[in-house]
Every structure is written in structure tokens, then in C-alpha cells.
Design a protein that fits this description.
It is a single chain. The chain has 2 domains: 183 residues, Class I glutamine amidotransferase (GATase) domain (Rossmann fold), CATH 3.40.50.880; 113 residues, Homeodomain-like (Arc Repressor Mutant, subunit A). Helix content is 44%, strand content 11%. The chain contains 14 helices and 9 strands. A 7-stranded mixed sheet has the order 3-2-1-4-5-9-8. Helix 1 runs parallel beside helix 5, helix 1 crosses helix 6 and helix 5 packs antiparallel against helix 6. The chain is globular. One of its GO terms (molecular function) is DNA-binding transcription factor activity. It comes from Oceanisphaera arctica. Pfam families: HTH_18.
Length: 341
Amino acid sequence: MQASIPTGTAAISPAPVPPILHPDDDGVITVSFLLLPEYAMVSLLSAIEPLRIANRLAGRELYRWQCLSENGQAVVASNQMALQQHLDMHAVDTPRNLFVNASFHPERHQSRELIDWLRRLNRRDSLLGALDTGCYLLARAGLLKGHSITLHWEAVPAFQETYPDILISPELFEIGRNRITCAGGTAATDMMLHLIQQQSGTALALQICDQCIKNGIRPPSDRQRIGLPRQLNIHHPRLIRVLALMEQHLETPLTPAELASSAFISLRQLERLCRRYLAASPSAYYLKLRLERARQLLQETDLSVCEVGSACGFISASGFCRSYRRHFDMTPGEQRRRGAA
């Protein structure tokens, strides 16, 4: 009897591609996780738990998993905790399914040894994936060319500046040709449930959802984050349109008149809406968004102050520095030094 999808939950669409995970010679699928320092433990556990539950419900071993590190030593996660068992990536059989798990400061953990090892896996046709910001290492190794990828929304601006030629999607997870990327967090559970559905069937995937107190598998197209309108409790459709345009054009800012025209309202109407809902003029709120993006780039990238200013729509470095100091009570250089401390 076919399992039914609970009323009110997200329907699970038919798998668009054949099963992608590579089984071992005994038919069991081993999923390996390469842990980088400061990785997000929530992403790792969210990916592993569906595999464990799948084995329990099936009454047999369908999946295995292992955590790897560059030298076999314990890796401390961003929550300052470490798992007890890590395997040396050089001491295991060639992983057929590998996910790089990272989070904060992924650019600091890109050794030549790691890059060469990933390239060898690629030559052996291993499936290569990434959780959260693990795609930084894959990109550094040149293994994401021609692939659409996703990563945690907070890391997108810095990644775009570093790798402008790589196509980034806003999806929860992206599954392509021997590549899987995931935004991290609890989206790793949805990604793994989607893969289990492909490999082992919809009925088992739904049973795992029940065990996780989860009302269904989110589709990849679900939003990664709560949008600005919902954060600000704004429901006015014209202002929602303006806020979306502001977020989309931080590098090349639109004028208030252009924003108003795109939302099919007058400039005066736009100013009234912003004063009412945002307690600021359109220009002031737009500037705030651009400066917040600048602070993120200063903290998370090695871009120069001039490059950060340009990426956030400032024509001159002096104008950027003045605006930044006025808003944050420190210069961009001071911000960067504070972040590095």
C-alpha cells in the first residue's frame, strides 16, 4: 500500500534525476563528511540523523557514515564542541560520497593537501558535496565550474565577490552532476531526505519525517531565510517590492525615483511609506542596507576597503569611509582590525 502524504504538508515531487549517491561494493551507501575547523555541527547532525533512522526503520544497514579530518585529529566545531571519533582522510578507502562541512572563515582552511586530495577524488568520479560554506574549498579546488551551487545565505555576498563566475542559487540544496551543495542548518535534513527518497523510496522518507517530528520534506525552492518584509512585519505590496529591489541592487544602487517608478508609485508616496513603516527616508534605509553589507564583507573577506566600498555602491573610498564611520562609529579599517582580533 502506498504511503499517503499527511494533509497540509509539503508534497514530495517525483525525483527529477536517478539516484545519485554511489553505493559500496556490498550495496551499502557510505556518506563521508570532511570536517573543517569551525564547521557547523547542526549541519552535520542534521545530515546524519536521517541516515541512522533509515537504517532503524528498514531493519538493515542501508547507509553508513564517517567523519574525516585532515590529520585524524578531532576538529572543533563553531560551538566549541568536538566529536570523539575522526578518521584521517588519507587512511580510509577513497570516499565515494563526500561532503565538505564548513561554516565560519572557510577561506582559512584551504591547504594545498586538501585541494589536491579533493582533485584526486574528482578524478576517481566520487560524488562531491558541501554543507554550509564547504563549497569554498570545492571552488578553490576548481571543482564547481559549470555547476549551479548554493550555500548559507549569510555567506553569499562574500562568496560572490571571491568567485564571481560561479552561479549561486537561493535554493535550500542543489543536486547536479556528481555535485550536491546545501545551505546548511536544518536544510541538510531536507537534502538527505530527498536523497533517501531517491535511493530508498518515498514511503521510507515519509516515515523518517514522522520520526523527526517533521511535516514533510521541504522542496529545494523553499526560502532560506525570513525576508525583510516579514522581519519588519510589512504587508504593503508596493513597499515589499521596493525592499526587494534595494536588496537586489546594493552594488549598483537605484535612485529613490527609480525605486518608486518600479513599484508604480510616486516618489512622494514612497517617502510616506518609508517614513510610516521604516521610520526613515528611502535613501537613509537604503544606505543602512548597503553599510550592513559592507560590514559583512569587511568581516568575512580579504577584499580591500576600496573594493568593499565599490561592492556596496560607493563611488569613492572617502565617501564610503565617512558614511561607515557615521553609521557604525568606527572606520572600515577599525572594523576589520576588530574582527581580526
